[in-house]
Amino acid sequence: MGKSYIYSSVTKKVIMSLVGLFLITFLLVHLTINLLLLFDPTRELFNVAAHFMGTNPLIQIFQWVLFGGFALHMILGVILQVQNWMARPKGYKKKAASEKSLFSRFMIHTGILIVVFLVIHFSDFFIKAKFLGEIGEIVYNGHHYEDMGLLVIEKFQMLGYVIFYVIALLILGFHLDHAFQSAFQSLGVNHPKYTPFIMGFSRFLAIVITVGYIFIPLFIYLK
Ligand code: HEM
Question: What class is the 3-222 domain?
């Protein structure tokens, strides 16, 4: 393994980690806005927040940063995985596998499934709202908004859709469980004192995000 390989691989991991942490921040913001839908029968809070996210010029710029971030994270993930497979000496495979945690071994697989979920998610909500104009309108205080909340509620009244989301979100949870602590390791934060805390916090965050998202389709379906 040449030095240049090690350096480039470390650089890729650092970039992936920073982008990954940015994506986790997005997930928290997205979750907060989506949860607004559950506690407000008029859907005003959610629709106004979605409208703000969809029209604010600064957030529009960030949206492209977000899409670029997703793309970069995926491309680097695939490259790193392929390099890993190529660099692994014969007979090492079994040992490496037993040393790693369960979820860390499936990052590429869970990652690919998340991409499949995102394609479906985009065609259901984002593309319909942005490009097809298929969303109904609703008026609050004389202002017109797209009724994105109604679309979400209609989708989650279909059992098949709810099952698909719950499975996809569990897969996302497995991915996140390893992602956060791995990001800190790639960034060089590795200390006997702090690592146990980071591992625990990583799991806590993965559980909060996963349970929070899963709560949405289940709540809407069962209500
Ligand atoms: C119950 C779960 C979810 C619901 C109800 C939901 C709902 C929505 C809706 C309504 C939109 C379009 C309008 C908007 O921006 O508000 C959207 C966009 C988007 N969603 Fe989700 N989402 C969920 C889960 C996820 C997950 C798990 C991810 C990432 C892995 C994700 C990533 C995105 C992205 C990247 C966009 C486009 C960017 C944006 O418009 O903010 N969503 N989602």
Answer: mainly alpha
